[in-house]
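User: Can you recover a sequence for this backbone? Please restate the input before giving your answer.

Assistant: Of course. Working from this structure:
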């Protein structure tokens, strides 16, 4: 996950776990693609569950829920969704890529879309572009993993919460 599908060989994986690369086929007969899909599925399930738990523990207000989302995302290892979308998924078979695209949407974007829909129905926000806004929030939060350590203000999670506040409050144009 850290280096991407194309950059890692079965020999690299076998060396990392201390077995011969041919032994991997005993565990994953479908080879590198099957292993990659299994790893991504596990990661997405962990994110889906973590996001759900974080949101359920927070108050119903959108700001609190998005703070919980920011905290969850930014205290986990980065998924690098841009690389996955642009590089990893296109390198997979059509069946595997379609499966992972759908699973990513269900695990990461859809929960945020539902939060936004609830906030709209409660009168907290006006926008009904739930998919677009959810993608923007995830992209905004994921981009904080690219901030160099010297520029991190407090923590990435704290920066994520500040970005959520700006997102909700707006940048406030000067008069």
């Amino acid at each position: 996950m850290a280096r991407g599908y194309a950059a890692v060989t079965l020999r690299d994986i076998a060396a990392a776990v201390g077995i011969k690369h041919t032994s991997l086929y005993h565990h994953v007969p479908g080879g590198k693609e099957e292993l990659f899909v299994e790893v991504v599925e596990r990661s997405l399930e962990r994110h889906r569950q973590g996001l759900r738990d974080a949101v359920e523990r927070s108050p119903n207000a959108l700001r609190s829920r998005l703070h919980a989302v920011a905290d969850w995302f930014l205290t986990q290892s980065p998924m690098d969704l841009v690389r996955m979308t642009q590089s990893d998924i296109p390198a997979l078979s059509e069946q595997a890529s379609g499966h992972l695209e759908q699973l990513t949407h269900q695990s990461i974007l859809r929960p945020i879309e539902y939060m936004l829909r609830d906030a709209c129905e409660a009168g907290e926000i006006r926008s009904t572009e739930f998919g677009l806004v959810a993608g923007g929030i995830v992209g905004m939060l994921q981009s904080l993993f690219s901030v160099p350590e010297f520029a991190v203000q407090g923590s990435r999670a704290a920066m994520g919460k500040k970005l959520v506040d700006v997102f909700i409050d707006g940048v406030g144009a000067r008069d």
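That completes the design. Residues 75 and 110 are 20 Å apart (CA to CA).
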